[in-house]
């Protein structure tokens, strides 16, 4: 059973922020 299969959908802003930080980190490496 998956009690919260879409927990990530509850905080899209956090995911977007994390993705942006990830892209910034990749850009800083290059």
Describe this entry's structure for a reader.
There is one protein chain. Helix content is 60%, strand content 0%. The chain has 30 residues and is mainly alpha-helical. It is elongated. The termini are far apart.
Mean pLDDT: 73
Oligomer category: single chain
What characterizes the major β-sheet?
none
Structural category: mainly alpha
Beta content comes to under 5%
Q: Would you identify the regions where 5 or more consecutive residues have pLDDT less than 50?
A: none
Instruction: Report the count of strand segments.
Output: 0
Protein name: IS630 family transposase
What labels describe this entry?
single chain; 30 residues; mainly alpha; elongated
Task: Please outline the helices and strands.
Elements: H1 12-29
Summarize the entry for a quick read.
By secondary structure, this protein is mainly alpha-helical.
